[in-house]
Design a protein that fits this description.
Strand content: 5-15%
CATH class: Alpha Beta
Number of helices: 8
Oligomer: single chain
Strand order of the largest sheet: 1-3-2
Number of domains: 1
Order of helices and strands: HHEHEHEHHEEHH
Distance between the termini: 45 Å
Largest sheet: 3 strands, parallel
CATH architecture: 3-Layer(aba) Sandwich
Radius of gyration: 19 Å
Helix content: 40-55%
């Protein structure tokens, strides 16, 4: 969910106002993807590298996330019996207050059909290291892909079919490194606060136009080889 700061700068606003606008965009995005029949979505809210930002911006972000979970996420979970929220990442670095609020939201609903993963203090490399260490701690002397997948933060969700990056940057930024091995990628110049219905429809049209082979051949290509 990139581009909040640049969105604010273009409007002569503080970066924190961009993050607030970005938070407001989440509800519409979730609504749209549910209309498309999506059952799992992962939002990259705060990375392990984001701690490098100015302390005042980090503090503002953490306060915003706490308020959003408390005032928006938890009431929505109580109202919507289809939604559950999971916070993926290393919660140990979060404040006690925020960590407890995240756990409260998670425990309100488990096993519902629409899962919204919120990546908070998340890094793809960190996740893989955590998974390996957890497997070793459980007595595994070696790991397979199947075993390691069970220890990933996203073990409750399938690997993503589509990864969308807003804001125009062409990099993965340590996001779902293990899970996105065969995901389709779409990079859009649209900043996250502006990522609404029109932008989503364009991304989904692009996704549905692609032919996914997962390392194999299309049926017609296979036939031509015979």
């Amino acid at each position: 969910m990139d581009g909040n700061g640049r969105w604010a700068k273009r409007r002569g606003l503080p970066r924190t106002e961009g993050h607030k606008a970005g938070a407001k965009a989440v509800a519409e995005v979730i609504k749209m993807f549910r209309e498309y029949g999506v059952h799992h979505i992962t939002l990259y809210a705060f990375s392990t590298e984001n701690w490098k930002r100015p302390p005042e911006e980090v503090d503002a972000l953490m306060s915003l996330i706490y308020r959003y979970v408390d005032k928006v996420v938890i009431p929505e979970i109580k109202k919507n019996d289809q939604l559950c929220v999971r916070f993926i990442g290393d919660k140990s670095r979060l404040s006690d207050k925020l960590r407890k609020k995240c756990i409260e939201a998670e425990e309100l609903a488990v096993g519902r059909p629409f899962v919204c993963n919120v990546a908070l203090n998340y890094g793809g490399r960190d996740e893989i290291v955590h998974a390996v260490n957890s497997a070793l701690a459980d007595g595994h002397t070696e790991v397979s892909e199947e075993i390691l997948s069970k220890y990933m933060y996203t073990s409750h969700s399938p690997d993503p079919d589509l990864v969308i990056r807003t804001g125009g940057d062409f990099r993965i930024s340590n996001f779902l490194l293990w899970q996105s091995a065969y995901s389709e990628f779409i990079i859009t110049d649209t900043m996250w606060p502006d990522f609404g219905r029109a932008a989503i429809e364009k991304c989904m049209a692009e996704f549905y136009s692609r032919r996914r082979r997962f390392g194999g051949l299309d049926p017609e290509d296979a036939e031509s080889e015979e």
